[in-house]
Design a protein that fits this description.
With 213 residues, the chain is mainly beta. The chain has one domain. It contains no helices and 20 strands. Pfam families: DUF432. This is DUF432 domain-containing protein. It comes from Thermococcus cleftensis (strain DSM 27260 / KACC 17922 / CL1).
């Protein structure tokens, strides 16, 4: 699914969507998806299907609510995985020719009505191993305080975030949540697994302080 594909007549299934490549002639390929059509001149560039952060209508944050809240003892660290939504980026060389969402698209207000932000919304279990999901977040939670802490959701910045992928699964960068007095989240920009490919040069995003728990 993810990665480079040959420019020839074929259907390609991407989770719950399909794209269609049609050879118009020796030099031209027609790309089609649900009313979107792009004529591609064959050249040196690769045809790529890549995961993209779930920005949807242009949001900057992803909020994942846990199906079961997690209680963490003082000075403890836990590592696990969450399922997550993604967008799909279709590229011809370094040009994005199409971008779309897959799965059910949900949004939610994070914070208060007057000062909150709209975030992409998703619900997930907390897994000890990689779940059978098209997209995954590896999450490290560390409680540096002397008190027990509760985690019921994670909110982190995704705008322009690098993504990582294998052929069948997409990954967000490693996410670290520190349960300080004000919870702090770090989209590290680092791969959760050293064997994965990246969509572009990885850079960390600024830490985000979760003012509303």
């Amino acid at each position: 699914m993810f990665g480079e594909h040959e420019l020839r007549t074929q259907f390609i299934k991407i989770i719950d969507k399909k794209i269609h490549l049609v050879e118009e002639s020796e030099n031209w390929i027609l790309y089609r998806r649900e009313g979107v059509q792009v004529l591609i001149k064959k050249g040196k560039g690769k045809f790529l299907i890549l995961p993209a952060p779930a920005e949807g209508y242009g949001v900057k944050f992803l909020m994942i609510r846990l199906s079961e809240r997690i209680a963490i003892p003082p000075k403890e660290r836990i590592v696990g995985y969450l399922s997550a939504p993604i967008d799909i980026s279709i590229r011809s060389g370094d040009l994005e020719i199409d971008r779309f969402t897959v799965g059910r698209e949900k949004y939610s207000l994070y914070g208060e009505k007057t000062v909150g932000v709209i975030a992409r919304y998703h619900e997930s279990d907390f897994y000890e191993s990689i779940p059978d999901s098209p997209a995954v977040v590896k999450l490290v939670i560390y409680n540096p305080t002397e008190s027990w802490k509760m985690v019921e959701r994670v909110v982190f910045p995704i705008r322009n975030s690098v993504m990582f992928y294998s052929e069948e699964r997409a990954y967000y960068p490693l996410i670290i949540l520190l349960t300080k007095e004000i919870y702090e989240v770090n989209n590290t920009g680092n791969p959760p697994d050293g064997t994965l490919r990246q969509t572009h040069r990885a850079e960390p995003l600024p830490n985000f302080r979760m003012r509303w728990l």
